[in-house]
Amino acid sequence: MIPQRTIKQPVHAIGIGVHSGQKVRMALRPAGENTGVLFVRTDLPGRGSVRACAQNVSDTTLATSIANGGVQVSTVEHLLSALWGVGVDNLIVELSAEEVPIMDGSAAPFVDLIDSVGLVEQDAEKAFIRINREVRVTQGEAFAALSPHPGFTASYTFVADHPVYNRFPKHARFDFSRVSYAKEVSRARSFGLLSELSQAQAINKCLGSSLENAVGIDDCRVLNDSGLRYRDEFVKHKVLDAIGDLYLLGRPILGAFSGHMSGHALNNKLARALLRCDDAWDICTVGRDGLEPSIMPSSAVQA
Question: Which end of the chain is more exposed for a tag (fewer CB within 10 A), N or C?
Answer without folding.
Answer: N
